[in-house]
Structure formats: C-alpha cells, structure tokens
Amino acid sequence: MTAIPEPAPAAPAVWWREAVCYEIHPRAFADGDGDGTGDLPGATARLDHLARLGVDAVWITPFYPSPLADGGYDIADHTGVAADLGTPADFEALVAKAHALGIKVLVDVVPNHTSHRHPWFREALAATPGSPARQRYVFRDGRGEKGELPPNDWQSAFGGPAWTRIEEADGLPGQWYLHLHAPEQPDLNWRHPGVVAEFERILTHWLDRGVDGFRVDVAHTLFKAEGLPDAGPGQHEDAHRNHLMPYYDQEELHPLFRQWRTLLDRHPAPQGAVAPHERVMVAEAGIFDRERLARYVAPGEMQQTFNFAFLECPWDGRAMREVIEQSARAMQAVGAPVTWVLSSHDAIRPVTRYGGGRLGERRARAAALLMLALPGAAYVYQGEELGLPQAHIPDERIRDPLWERSGHRHRGRDGCRVPLPWSGTAPPYGFSEAAPEACWFPQPADWAHLTVVAQRSEENSMLALYRTALRLRRDHPAPDTVLRVQGPANGEWFAFGRSARLRCLVNFGPRPVPLDDGVRVLLSSAPLDGRDVPQDTAVWTTDEEYPQ
Questions:
Q1: Helix 357-373 and helix 462-475, axial crossing angle in degrees, nearest 10
Q2: Catalytic residues, which ones?
Q3: Cα–Cα distance between 451 and 383 in angstroms, integer?
C-alpha cells in the first residue's frame, strides 16, 4: 500500500473542492435560433439536462466577439457577447436559470492575448515603434542587417515562428509582434500597467453579472523572460519541459494571481451568485512538473488547476497510479484539491483516445468511474457523458488553425467540437432546426444511439452511468484525508477509498480481480464475472448497508 504524506492544513470546505463542473462549448452545444450555430439561448434551454445529470457548475468557453481564428479564443471585446451567440441579456438569463437550478457559472478569461482585430491592436498597428499603443503588446525590432529575421527563435504552439512582421505606415517592413499561438492572437505585455488594469476591469464586469468564477486560459504564458532569450531546439515537443521555456511559468505570474484572488474575495456579489469568498479560479496551466503546477493553487492564489497529466496518461495501470499519487501529493502539500479531467475542447475524446470502438468505450466507462471516485474536483466536457467518439471533419470544414499552421499534417481539435446529439435518428439530432450541412460541424450519420433521448431509456448507457456515479459521488463526499492506493507494483489493478463507505477498484490487467467477501457492488462500468472484476473495468463497492 502506498500512502501520500499528510496534507498541509486545508482551507475550510467550500463547494469547489469537490465540485463536478460541466464544460459547454456554446457553438456546439445547442442552437436556440435555428441558424445552425449553438448559442446562449440554446444552452439556457438545455440546462435542465445538466441539472438531471447532477453537476455542480458549468464552465462556458468564450462567447465574446471574435473573428474565430481560434475557436473564439481570439477575442475582440472581452466584455461583449458575440452577435451570433446572443445578447448580454441572453447571458444574464443563462446565469439566472443556472442559479435557479443550483448550478454555479464559470466563464473563460483569456489574458495572454487578444484578437488581431481588438481596438488596442488596431491602434498599435497604426502607431509608430515605441509608442504607448505598441507597448501594450510585445513588439520588437528584428534581427539581421535589415531586421528581416525574427527577434528570437521562439516557436508558436500552433506551428511555425511565434513572430509576425508588420508593414509600417510608410509601406516598408517594420517591427515584429509576438504570438505564442496564431498570428491572429497577438500576445499582451503583462508588464504594462494598462494591461493589468484592463483585466481587473474585465473580471469585475463579469463578477457584476453574477458569475461564480473564472477559468484562466493558458495561465502559464502571461509573462515572458526579461530580454526574450532564445528557447533553443525542441520547443513544444515535450510538454514535460514546458516549465523550462522562457515564455512559460515565469515568477511574476504569482503576484498577479494573488491580486486577482484578492479582487474575487472582496468584490461584492450580486443576488444569486456565491459569496465572494466562495468564488473560484481554475488555471489552465500546461505545466507537468507537479510541484511547480501546485504553486498556481498555493494559498492566496487560484483554487484549482487542471491536471493534464491525468488527461494525457495512457490507459496503463502503473502510469495512471503514478500520476494519481504524485498529483495528490503535490496538491496536498499546498492544501488544494486535485482537479481531475478526462477531456476538453482541446483533447481527443476518451472513447477514441483509449482505443476506439467497443474497447475504447469500455475503457472510457472505467476511466469515468475512476475519475469520479477520486477525491477532489472533476470537469466533464460536453458529450463525455454520452460516450461520444472523436468525429471526422472533412478537410474543407476544418476550422482549427493547427491544420493550416502545420501544413495540413495535424487535423487539429475540431473532431471533439462537433454539435451534441440530443434526439432523433439523423443529423442534426435535435441540435438545431437548420439543415445538417448548415450546422457548426457535420455530425456522424451513426450517432442515433448516442443521443440524450436514446440514452435516457437505456439503463446501461454511458449517460446512465454518469448520472448514477454523480449521485453516488454526492452521497459519499471525500473527507480531506490522505489518499491511500493499494495494488500490485506492476499496476495490473489498484484500489482506493473515496470515503469510509465507498471504495473504487480498477482492473487494467488480463487477470480477473476477485472482490473481497462481504462487499456489495454499488456501480460497475461493465458486467462482472460473478464476484470477479474483468479487465478494463472499474467498480464501486461498499461494505456497509446502503439504500438502493
């Protein structure tokens, strides 16, 4: 048995420490006006599905005005609502209904960059080198005799150089600007006081509209090393080296996040929202060194940070156990919960990632029970509860900038952003009243059995599994104690207790694992062989009487 060291004293129990949060990618969730694109009214109309599912909160990915160069993460107005998604009143109606259903609301804040069509960047392009307008971004003169080379060797996460040269007002080639992602996403200069003040305004704007927290996009990227030194070869090839890159994980991040935490803890809350001290920030930080990742959720900073090591772990018992134990150890050292995640709008869906077909579905079901039994918070991406596989997007319909930036070598993330199937036997499966070809992305023709309506009446469906698991999870809250994992060193199986009354066992290996005498099965991801747990199966058990 492996025991995690005793945790640091934790903060008082609040809702987000054990919350299950559901991610809505609005353009692919539900279409309320029949134009083929999901929107805020459509999402509001479908919130009852989330209430029946049993989630505690919803995180809504960007719904702000955007040219959509990167799925809405290229923002032209951080406090607006995109016209194709609705109006400010529609957002307020969504928040009001969510709160009436007992569901908290988180929204994205995207602080690393703006859209190239943001008024600030337009002003910067029209200004001269060294002007105040350019100082809000990262503009630099190029290297080489005539400035024809980028200022350094930094590479974009989407492929190619992280610098683009502009044409100055006189028509001649001029300075270069930094974009760690797409060229349409120029990076902000976080050492500029105007940038700091603007994002305090943005946070306050959404707090005043009742949001209960924020997911902070690429939280590890805001500050770049002084002098912008070269990063060297191998950039973006090994995520476990991210914390060594001069454009990631800089020390100046942490005082900034402490300022934001103070703002959230003190700014008055409107009626219906959580109290200020119960608000939450979750970091999307692509840092795989667990001790460095834990610094983002140290006391006084954020409360959650996505555990991408868990999401990217292969279906292998030894590797999975190592990630779980090391993650728990790192987070307990700072008194924070682990934030488990199996999928997102940026990741290949679990059914496909774990092998595809029946094998992938079986493993995805087991992974769901594993994640939902672990102490801490959990995030569920739309369609995960339906067991959706990754969909194929025809070349001509691909939107992800990775496709073009990689020279058509990487198809990108659009396959997990296909509209949800709600009902019916053919596309668009109740997502919209528009023709299938007019919808945000094409849906597969064989998804009729995966719709919400079809799965509601199937007692062994993925939807039924998630609903039951979320009910049992809520009935068995995990105490703030040491996580102890038991099992053989080779990782064929392992088990742990979520609480005194609920235990989870996952079998990865080919040999069946017999259950102890006297325990009763509460939930299983696949049928058991008598009292034996077969391969690629997770089971929740109890040794106490529990009402059916």
A1: 10
A2: 217, 284
A3: 9
